[in-house]
C-alpha cells in the first residue's frame, strides 16, 4: 500500500464524516494478508502459525473442511485469532475461484501466497529414507534446459510433461535421463517443472515477487516423519521469502535459506 493512496482514502473518509471508519480502513490496509495452501498440517501449518505470530492475517486453506477448521482451532488456542479457514482443492479450478472471491470480498487484497499444498502421488512404504534425498535430474541436457530461463516457456514445459508420460509408458525413463534412482520419479519431475514454471511467471509478472523454496528434508506425514529437520526449521526459508520487503528477490530459488540453482 503506497502512502499517497492511504492518504487519499483517509481524506475521503474524513470528508464523509466517518473518522472511526477512516482509522479502521487505513489500519486494515496496512495489515498483510496471506493465503497458505495445504495449511492444515506439516510445513503449511507451521507457516500459518509463524505468519500469524508476525501480525499477518492468514487464510489457512485445506482440501478437507474438518481438518482445516481443526487446524484453525488449534492455532486459536495459541492466541492466534488472526487466522481464518477456507476450503481449497488446488486440483479443482472452481475451488480456486471461490477462494479468490472470498479473499477479494473479505480483505480486498492478497499480499502473500504460499503455494505449499502437494501430494506424493503414490501410497508407499519408505524402507530407506535416502530415497528422498536424490538429486532432481541425472540427465545433463534436462538440467541445462530447465535452468535456461531465457528459452524456457510454458509450452515447452507442457511438452516435457508429455514427453515424461510417453517415456514412462514406453519404459524409457532411465534411458532418457529422467531421475529414476531411488524411485518417486513422477514426484521429482513434477517438482522440477513446477519450480521452472514459477520462474516463467516471475519473468512475466516482474511486479510480483515470485520465488521457490526447498524447505529441506522435513519431518512430515508425507514422508512418514523420517526427515532430518523439524517443521520449524523447514519453514524458515518460506518465511524469509514471505516476509521479505518489497523489491527483494524475484524468480529465485532457496535451498532452505540459501540461494541455489534450480536443478
Structural write-up:
Keywords: NADP, Oxidoreductase. One of its GO terms (molecular function) is oxidoreductase activity. Belongs to the short-chain dehydrogenases/reductases (SDR) family. The protein has 263 residues and is of the alpha/beta class. It folds into 2 domains: 31-118, NAD(P)-binding Rossmann-like Domain (Rossmann fold, 3-Layer(aba) Sandwich), CATH 3.40.50.720; 124-263, Rossmann fold, CATH 3.40.50. 45% of the residues lie in helices and 10% in strands. It is built from 10 helices and 7 strands. It has helices at 3-15, 19-30, 42-53, 65-76, 93-106, 140-147, 154-170, 185-204, 231-234, 236-242, and strands at residues 33-36, 57-62, 83-87, 112-114, 212-214, 253-255, 258-259. The strands form 2 sheets. Strands 3-2-1-4 form a 4-stranded parallel beta sheet, sandwiched between helices. Strand 2 (57-62), helix 4 (65-76) and strand 3 form a beta-alpha-beta unit. Helix 1 (3-15) runs antiparallel to helix 2 (19-30) and helix 7 (154-170) runs antiparallel to helix 8. The longest helix is centred in the last third of the chain and has 20 residues, at 185-204. The protein is globular, with a radius of gyration of 21 Å. Residues 1-14, 122-126 and 129-137 have low confidence and may be disordered.
Concise overview:
The chain has helices at residues 3-15, 19-30, 42-53, 65-76, 93-106, 140-147, 154-170, 185-204, 231-234, 236-242, and strands spanning 33-36, 57-62, 83-87, 112-114, 212-214, 253-255, 258-259.
Amino acid at each position: 500500500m503506497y502512502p499517497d493512496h492511504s492518504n487519499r482514502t483517509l481524506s475521503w473518509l474524513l470528508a464523509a464524516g466517518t473518522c472511526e471508519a477512516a482509522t479502521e480502513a487505513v489500519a486494515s490496509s496496512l495489515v498483510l494478508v496471506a493465503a497458505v495452501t495445504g495449511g492444515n498440517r506439516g510445513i503449511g501449518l507451521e507457516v500459518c502459525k509463524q505468519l500469524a505470530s508476525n501480525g499477518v492475517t492468514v487464510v489457512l486453506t485445506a482440501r478437507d473442511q474438518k481438518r482445516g477448521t481443526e487446524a484453525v482451532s488449534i492455532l486459536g488456542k495459541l492466541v492466534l485469532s488472526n487466522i481464518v479457514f477456507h476450503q481449497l482443492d488446488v486440483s479443482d479450478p472452481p475451488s480456486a475461484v471461490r477462494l479468490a472471491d472470498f479473499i477479494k470480498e473479505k480483505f480486498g487484497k492478497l499480499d502473500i501466497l504460499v503455494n505449499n499444498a502437494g501430494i506424493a502421488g503414490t501410497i508407499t512404504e519408505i524402507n530407506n529414507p535416502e530415497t528422498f534425498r536424490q538429486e532432481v535430474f541425472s540427465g545433463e541436457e534436462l538440467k541445462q534446459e530447465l535452468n535456461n530461463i531465457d528459452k524456457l516457456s510454458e509450452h515447452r514445459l507442457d511438452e516435457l510433461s508429455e514427453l515424461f508420460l510417453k517415456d514412462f509408458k514406453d519404459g524409457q525413463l532411465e534411458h532418457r535421463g529422467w531421475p529414476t534412482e531411488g524411485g518417486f520419479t513422477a514426484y521429482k519431475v513434477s517438482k522440477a517443472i513446477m519450480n521452472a514454471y514459477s520462474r516463467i511467471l516471475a519473468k512475466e509478472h516482474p511486479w510480483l515477487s515470485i520465488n521457490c523454496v526447498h524447505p529441506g528434508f522435513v519431518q512430515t506425514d508425507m514422508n512418514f516423519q523420517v526427515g532430518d529437520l523439524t517443521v520449524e526449521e523447514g519453514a524458515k526459508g518460506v518465511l524469509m521469502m514471505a516476509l521479505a520487503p518489497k523489491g527483494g528477490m524475484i524468480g529465485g530459488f532457496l535451498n532452505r535459506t540459501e540461494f541455489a540453482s534450480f536443478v
